[in-house]
## 1
Amino acid sequence: MIETDTLIVGAGMAGLTAARTLAEAGVPVTVVEARNRVGGRILSHHIGEHAIELGAEFIHGRPPELWALIAEAGLETYERGGTDGCAEDGSVKSCDMPGGAFDLLEDLKDPPTPDVSFAEYVGSWQISDLERVSLLNFVEGFNAADAREISSASLGAQQEAEDATDGDLAFSLPGGYDQLAEYLAQRVKNFEGCIHLNRHVREIRWSHHAVQAISPDETFTARRTVITVPLGVLVSGGLSVSPRPRQIFDAASQLRMGHAIRFTLRFREPFWKQLPKSPIEDLGFLFSFDELPSVWWTTHPRPSCLLTGWVGGPRSEALAALTPAELASHACSTLARIFSIETARISDLLLECHTHDWSRDPFSLGAYSYVAAGGLNAPQQLSQPVEDTLFFAGEHTDTTANWGTVHAAMRSGLRVAQQILKGMP
Ligand SMILES: Cc1cc2nc3c(=O)[nH]c(=O)nc-3n(C[C@H](O)[C@H](O)[C@H](O)COP(=O)(O)OP(=O)(O)OC[C@H]3O[C@@H](n4cnc5c(N)ncnc54)[C@H](O)[C@@H]3O)c2cc1C
């Protein structure tokens, strides 16, 4: 039996941020994590000088808490850029993405009432079928969401939140996103906090100011607990909470866990730079709307031989069952069509394909959350403490409309730490 004051379930960015803030304020904290590592949906694979991200990769804009942590940890960043390319008739041409009908997404800042799904909302717009399909694919891909479910109002709130932090800019950590999680974990330990890995909490039993967290190897007891498991784990019953706080689970039922397939191919050389029919030297993003994946990106301006493919939302199911080898083979034939070159030429240049199946990972059960139509208040409800004993954090509980990001997870961790500190004598 391990006793502590505040028990934090999950060592992702939400859990580590809360733990670090509380530990630094002198609160005894213990973090319990099911995996054999910290970071959760941050998972960096280090090969030579490259960090290949299998989870979060981009820093979206300039969220202050994330940049403050990067500065504190003294980490190197670089701004992503380059020319966007669109695949068209066997070649890749530079194109403006988003643009055209995509400007209509600005209308989301004044969403319909009552709230409807994005698919229903777009159905009322006077645009061509092609534009409609492109918009649906774009929203599904970016949000890993089903357009028939995702709330239009939440997309509007998200756009406003992105505008407030230059969300159209993207940056990366060349040394790996995992450096942030490692840094936070070290801070927790420096301030006498404990982190227990390989502890799968299966059940939380609680009453006012008395919590028991039961894992097969150990039982932890605490005055309060912060539950940061991903939405997918919370709603699937992967962690049972008894008694079950109804208001929390009612709110969680108005959110959805989105799904995505992301894989990074490492080649011997960046072959896409040397193709006479597709002469984009500084290719950043590549859009291929008739193909799966329909979104690709390079690491431009940082030189590398890496190309990443992304499919978000229901279309990701088509690639979900593929092994990394099958995914690599599918990717090579897709890229061959996009660039009009022989599949064998691309396959010969391919060294490895790196991916992680977040949907079948029992500790995430999906990629990241989104709000279903009518559920815009659900994250706010999830952020309310239950009897000063149960606290919920994680990207899905973010109250600033940045769901599905690293800074949302951090914000929820900071929020929960403040709630706990405020309630202390
Ligand atoms: C493929 C992919 C790409 C992404 N790209 C980006 C991006 O470019 N930029 C960006 O900002 N965000 C991105 N995200 C989202 C970002 O990774 C998440 O929003 C963020 O990391 C979530 O942090 P969290 O602490 O809320 O959850 P998590 O990181 O999931 O942490 C929760 C922790 O709880 C643990 N846990 C689960 N169940 C139990 C249990 N029963 N007992 C104990 N521990 C348990 C998990 O193992 C995990 O460590 C991406 C996510 C994915 C999957």
## 2
Amino acid sequence: MNSAQPPRTLAEAAALLRRQEAELADSRRQTAELSHELSDADHGLIALHAELEAARGAAARLAAIVTSSGDAMISLSPQRVIQTWNPGAAHLLGHATDAMVGNTVDALLPEGARPAFEDALARTGSGEHAEPVETRWRHADGGLVDVSVTVSAMRDADGAVIGYSIVGQDIGRRLALQSELAAARAEREVMADRERIARDLHDMVIQRVFAAGLTLQGVTALLDHDRATARIEGVVAELDATIQELRNAIFDLHRAPQEAASLRAQIFDAISAARHSLGFAPTVSFEGPVDAAVPDGVAVHLMAVLREALSNIGKHAQASAAEVGLHTGEELLLTVGDNGRGLGPSTRRSGLANLRERAVALGGTFDIGDRPGGGTRLAWRIPLSRHRGGPTGS
Ligand SMILES: Nc1ncnc2c1ncn2[C@@H]1O[C@H](COP(=O)(O)OP(=O)(O)OP(=O)(O)O)[C@@H](O)[C@H]1O
Ligand SMILES: [Mg+2]
């Protein structure tokens, strides 16, 4: 019910009309303002939507990179709990995504890798750039994997650390190639030195000794003293023998250092080099002649097999002892055993495949399996008779 009194006079009616007109104008103005504001809000919404779409696109692109990358990509909360674990990480470290998300990263870090990782977290957390660190992380099978790890802090709009991202790259192959390259370079330098010494001995020393011998022989013709002639002839014979020895030395210098060092010495060298990474000294036993029985063509492979077997013990076995045995007779039998955790189901890489290929190429066999009493034992067996060249060959 309308409480307003109806106008009683014409003047009142005119005043009411004016008031109502003014109110109408006011509400029109308000409506216009409102519609203006609405259209502004609309534009804002459209812009927001576009931004959201762009952000969604960027997130999708990032997710595609993370998923398809061959590198391990891991993200951590500030409390080091794993939040992202891409297929690259699963491939490199052997753990499935489900098994890792929600765990802390600590299980991946063997004792030796911790300080460098802590340092990288602290540096990137305080705003410094953390260089990639070459280190070893633990694989699901218990072994160690060579990785280059780059850590970066993730920050919110105010710059506060909201987590860390980690990119891990497999550098096993590169390290192996680098050490082969370094060994090849060192060998080439040694060979160059040996060639130079051999040349100097040949061109200078032998020629001078030879000339001295000729001079002495000339002197005997001038002498008519029998004892003096006999002594000089003795010295000339000595000089001839010296020249022969020099020639032998030159011949030795031209041979590769590997051939010059006995196989037995090379085996001892490889074992003592492995001590550092193993943390203990493997024992070694020989049965039968080593240097005489093993031809060079087999020795090169034997050394490669021994090095890979020792490296596997260091990387995978978690052993406290190992034994190397070399038996030579009609066949060569190299055995390498360790008291570690035994061979797991995983055969990820090519090391063991190479050992088998080397055996097959030489007409032999390769076996790896459980060692009686625990651990792993491999046997690399090569028939020797067919590889012996020269008069003793069959
Ligand atoms: N002595 C050992 N004790 C326990 N596990 C071993 C041992 N040797 C090898 N393995 C297992 O066998 C797998 C295959 O070894 P292999 O040498 O072929 O590869 P790798 O050492 O992992 O990589 P690569 O040799 O190519 O660098 C290893 O990943 C490891 O799981
Ligand atoms: Mg290996």
